[in-house]
Design goal:
heterodimer, A: Rossmann fold, four-stranded parallel beta sheet, 8 strands, disordered N terminus, B: Rossmann fold, 2 domains, six-stranded parallel beta sheet
């Protein structure tokens, strides 16, 4: 039992797993728990979580977004912090919930309060916990993709890089276009696949130019998009979420590789 | 021009299949952003200037009536005349009336996006007056009868070979065996042709980068000096500007000039910056005898007090186009009307209506790069979302997508149902795709799998695994 009975005196974290991690890549959730616990936190996973509501919000459906926001706030407000292994879903809670609920007198202050305690995973480890005892080995050449929301909504840039610098054997080569959008954009990539393909091709070219064997990032949406294009183009560059590498949980297949169901690892 | 924004998908496909365009866009979007970054880095107060520029325009928009009236008073004091135009029709008619009064046959014109917005060239031609674009890029696309594809680099979609071809076609009086291989030769030929036109023109039509209320001046910013010849040689100078171009003082204009060229091309200042105040005075050696300013509204005052008011801070520098990965993929023509890029996607629906422009606010990943470089700090992604919200509220989005969204939202709002459904869907997908780890094709996932594989889920959902390993989640 790692959450409820944890003897850690550190802050009590509510992990917002995100729908993509929940449904497609649970290993990222377990890696996040392992890292947070190693940093001295008590971690809980509120049961009432599903999705942060971005598909509705970015489609202009504010009434449904507001309902979903209220559901998330109610489930997550009883903890010291909310931590999210995604800049995109983190940005949704931190910046857009307060906007969507601004006119709702009963909920506006609750939205703002939750927003002020919400962090993207690597920035929480690095900036709030000042955590640096990464115990991981990954003797590979990697490059990093900055997701737009991590970079521009959550001010995440140096944090994952500083943490990765503690990983044994890992070398990081920056792509020139590391900060350029990969073309995912949620529903954008299925509504305008032609433009999205052009954008992800540019991203893939930039990754290939670094000659790295692995591309890491902090947002599963981007990573699935990049991985999908890499394999479609017959490239063997591996794609992983940064949390898996930092938590030393890289035994399973990379994104888009042949799978075996992951098991929770004891910290 | 007739909008083609409705045919957005066809426009995209044409743009993506055009190698000359793709090459030009690659060059543009690698060049300008680097130069902007270097220019900003050389100026320690650049970020502070962006705040000041934003505040100046916010103040103007809150007091627009006051400054417009002040501007009109000053222009009148100088002996000039202000013409208020509610829409494109009124603006075109005002220009035609002035031209008719002086019996104009030719009008030289320096680059103006408002000129494009009201399609003044076509209108003058229909009325027997010859308009001549004097900005090199505009001259080229005028010869080719094309709209601009970028607000500051209108012919950016063309190669120099295409320009040479256009010149051979248009300048039949010149020797057929001349060489137009070098860009310099193209420039010289255009300059030669335009000199004759400058001298013979009856009216000079310019835009305005700004209008200054305290002095009644218009500001013209160019790199070619063509605006100066356009306004100073003919007998009549007509300025066509939309009314949000106003700034209170010379000092304010100077502040905005400091962010304008740096954001646009990475220059500290453009090569020519001119302030025109009224017609020539009795002891001036040259200058126009008449000075007219057409102040165009064309729906802009409707944006005041709405979620789109901040769009009226835009100074048309083009930084959002230069940095936009969508613009980089498809170029300006794909947007289907005068403006393009993120600023176009926000502005076009308000000018030609959402029926025509419904794709534009949706064709964005909301990556936020545009807002991060906008010298006026316009929250472009927020406004793209605001249009989407309006489309949703007014039921302008497709019925199918609304139905799917509503079913999805119902499920998300009912966690036990969400888990039950996804447990089975994900389990099935994982089982089918386990061996290769990716799907090349999947029913109903065509939008995704046309361009890329779909990574196969690991197996059970996180929430199920977490429960299994831990008992009940707290």
């Amino acid at each position: 039992m790692m959450s409820a009975d944890s003897p850690n005196p550190g802050p009590h974290i509510a992990l917002f797993v995100t729908c993509l991690v929940d449904l497609t890549r649970p290993s990222v959730g377990f890696a996040s728990i392992k890292l947070l616990e190693a940093a001295g936190c008590k971690v809980s996973v509120p049961d009432q979580q599903t999705c942060c509501g971005q598909p509705a919000y970015n489609s202009g459906d504010n009434p449904d977004t507001a309902d979903i926001a209220r559901q998330v706030i109610a489930a997550f407000e009883g903890y010291d912090y909310v931590v999210v292994p995604s800049g995109s879903c983190g940005g949704m809670i931190k910046h857009h919930y307060p906007d969507v609920l601004a006119e709702d007198t009963a909920w506006a202050s609750r939205a703002t309060a939750l927003a002020s305690r919400t962090y993207e995973l690597t920035s929480f480890l690095h900036d709030v916990l000042k955590f640096s005892e990464i115990e991981a080995a990954y003797p590979k050449s990697v490059t990093y993709h900055d997701s737009c929301s991590s970079l521009r909504e959550m001010a995440v840039k140096e944090q994952p890089r500083n943490l990765l610098s503690k990983v044994n054997g890992l070398t990081l080569t920056e792509g020139e276009e590391a900060e350029t959008c990969c073309g995912f954009g949620g529903l954008f990539c299925v509504k305008y696949p032609e433009i999205s393909e052009n954008m992800v091709d540019a991203k893939v070219d930039d990754i290939l130019a670094t000659e790295a064997n692995v591309v890491l990032g902090g947002d599963l949406g981007c990573l699935m998009n990049i991985s999908g294009r890499l394999t479609r183009r017959g490239k063997t560059v591996e794609v992983r979420h940064v949390a898996e590498v930092l938590a030393d949980m890289v035994d399973g297949a990379p994104i888009g590789g042949p799978t075996a169901s992951p098991r929770r690892e004891k910290a | 021009m007739e909008p083609t924004s409705r045919n957005f998908h066809a426009n995209i496909n044409a743009a993506l299949a055009n190698p000359t365009l793709q090459q030009a866009l690659g060059k543009l979007t690698r060049g300008f952003p680097v130069k902007r970054l270097e220019a900003a880095a050389r100026l320690p107060e650049f970020e502070g200037l962006r705040d000041q520029a934003r505040d100046i325009k916010n103040h103007v928009l809150a007091n627009l009536d006051f400054y417009l009236e002040q501007f009109e008073m000053r222009v009148t004091d100088w002996g000039g005349q202000v013409h208020w135009a509610k829409d494109a029709d009124e603006a075109r008619q005002a220009i035609l009336d002035i031209c008719r009064k002086v019996d104009a046959r030719t009008v030289t014109k320096s680059k103006s996006m408002i000129g494009e917005e009201i399609a003044i060239n076509e209108f003058l031609e229909e009325n027997g007056i010859e308009p001549i674009e004097t900005d090199l890029g505009e001259y080229i696309i005028q010869l080719r009868k094309e709209p601009p594809s970028h607000i500051i680099a209108p012919a950016i979609h063309l190669s120099k070979e295409q320009v040479a071809e256009t010149f051979f076609e248009a300048h039949k009086d010149l020797p057929e065996d001349r060489s137009l291989e070098e860009p310099r030769a193209l420039l010289e030929e255009a300059r030669e042709k335009l000199r004759e036109k400058f001298i013979g023109a009856d009216v000079g039509l310019t835009g305005a980068n700004m209008l200054i209320a305290e002095t009644g001046s218009n500001v013209l910013v160019t790199n070619e000096g063509n605006a100066d010849l356009t306004y100073s040689l003919p007998r009549v100078h007509i300025v066509i500007a939309s009314l949000e171009k106003i700034v209170p003082t010379l000092e304010d204009a100077a502040t905005i000039l400091r962010v304008l060229a740096r954001s646009a091309t990475g220059q500290e200042m453009s090569v020519y910056t001119t302030f025109c105040s009224g017609p020539k005075r009795p002891d001036d050696p040259d200058g126009p005898e008449e000075y007219h300013v057409i102040l165009l509204d064309n729906g802009r005052t409707d944006l005041l007090g709405t979620e789109f008011q901040e769009m009226l801070r835009c100074i048309r520098c083009g930084a959002c186009l230069n940095h936009c990965p969508v613009y980089k993929s498809i170029g300006g023509h794909a947007y289907g009307w005068v403006y393009s890029g993120p600023m176009g996607a926000v502005l076009i629906p308000s000018l030609i209506g959402m029926d025509e422009a419904s794709h534009l606010p949706n064709a964005s990943t909301l990556c936020g790069k545009c807002e991060s470089v906008c010298p006026m700090r316009i929250p472009l992604p927020r406004m793209l979302r605001a249009w989407r919200k309006q489309q949703f509220t007014r039921k302008q989005s497709s019925g199918m997508s609304r139905l799917v969204l509503s079913l999805w939202a119902k499920m998300v709002k009912t966690p036990p149902v969400y888990r039950f459904v996804n447990r089975h869907v994900i389990g099935l997908l994982a089982l089918c795709g386990r061996k290769s780890g990716r799907f090349r094709w999947l029913p109903l996932a065509g939008g995704w799998t046309t361009a890329r594989d779909l990574p196969v889920p690991q197996g059970k959902t996180f929430m199920d695994l977490y429960r299994d390993g831990d008992g009940a989640a707290p």
